[in-house]
Amino acid sequence: MILRCPKCNNTYKPEKNRYICDCGSVLIVEYSSLQWRPKGEGVWRYKFALPFRGRPVTMDEGNTGMVHSESVENKLGLREVYFKLEGDNPTDSFKDRGTTVVISRAKKEGFKTVGVASTGNMGASVAAYAAHGNLKTKVFVPADTPEEKIAQIVVHGAELVRVEGTFQDCVNALWDAVHDERVYLAETGLNPYYIEGEKTLGFEIYEDVGIPDKIIVPMGTGGLITAIYKAFKELKQMKRTRKLPQMVGVQAAKCSPIIDAWKRGSEEPKTPKKAETIASAIMVKTPFNGRTAIRAINESNGTAVEVTDRQIVRAMKELGKDGIFAEPASATTLAALEKIEVEEKEKVVLVITGHGLKQPEAVFG
Ligand SMILES: Cc1ncc(COP(=O)(O)O)c(C=O)c1O
Ligand SMILES: [Zn+2]
């Protein structure tokens, strides 16, 4: 296993305290050989493609629901639309898939404390898994993070720091506070092992419904879309498929640095001055994984869609009428499906990344 920089192509051995490239970019894990050998259930069913050996810190994450939606199919004249329900995870979002891997590594490497900056869900996930693994956690979140997510962080006994500012200010505060090699950085954009755990979402989609034509994914840092696409590329490498799904990335109209770069034909998102959206989980002005997210969209011949807050709230209510409670960031996927071109026979998967109870007030909007 090596770590490769998607920006300058430098490679590194996976050593303790090696998080990012010397050029400042995130790093991506690469395996010299992979063999498809699923065994057991959930995230650890795909241990053969995960960067951890030994006894993991796990709470039975993964193995989430895949639900067929007749009402959306009928409304949009499509034949196969599925929701992948990541709210089924222990802390109600897909983050647990990455966190089980990252906290397992932190514990094995002998760390006692982990640090994370978060728009809420990652903080909740890391706080829970660190508590389960008997580690301490410091969580930095924007001051206006939904109270439901704050409650999740607090109940697990994490040290909570509310930062007056954006997610990027939280990352800066995290860097300042943990200039200490004894604190493990459990941060999506900085820790390459997150993507590896999140990748299992792609493997599950494959086992649930085969190779979809399109997968619609909300983008904040761009980590999740990178991870799902990596899963399908590894399936190709393992000769499970020749076809790859088209990746469709979604952002909020007033916070869309990845899509803005994609539209310019660039792989370098620029930090917007202002950002604002009800989908607080994806309100990320500096997307660490923007480059790999844009590559996933381009390489897979996919597309990217911006959705307004009004469209997000409408989609959230529509999902509710189909029995699905999605948080605003996750409802962006349905809002996006309504805006892209899809052929009737195409199989489409919408990743419902987090449960609606994490940010319920949007329902009354
Ligand atoms: C509910 C939800 N959906 C989507 C995302 C986007 O994931 P990423 O930051 O990996 O692009 C996040 C990230 O926090 C999230 O919490
Ligand atoms: Zn580099």
Q: Tally of extended strands?
A: 13
Please give the CATH architecture of the largest domain. 3-Layer(aba) Sandwich
Poorly predicted regions: none
Please outline the major beta sheet.
Answer: 6 strands, mixed
Structural class, from helix and strand content? alpha/beta
- Shape verdict: globular
Strand content: 15-25%
Ends distance: 48 Å
State the helical fraction.
25-40%
Structure commentary:
With 365 residues, the protein is of the alpha/beta class. It folds into two domains: 65-93 and 195-364, 3-Layer(aba) Sandwich (Rossmann fold); 94-193, Rossmann fold (3-Layer(aba) Sandwich), CATH 3.40.50.1100. The protein is 34% helix and 17% strand. The protein has twelve helices and 13 strands. The protein has helices spanning 70-76, 95-108, 121-132, 147-155, 167-177, 193-198, 200-209, 223-237, 257-264, 290-299, 309-321, 328-337, and strands spanning 2-4, 11-12, 28-30, 65-68, 80-85, 113-117, 136-142, 159-163, 183-185, 214-218, 246-252, 303-307, 347-352. A six-stranded mixed beta sheet has the order 4-5-13-10-11-12, with helices on both faces. A four-stranded parallel beta sheet has the order 8-7-6-9. α3 (121-132) packs parallel to α4 (147-155). Bound molecules: pyridoxal-5'-phosphate and zinc ion.
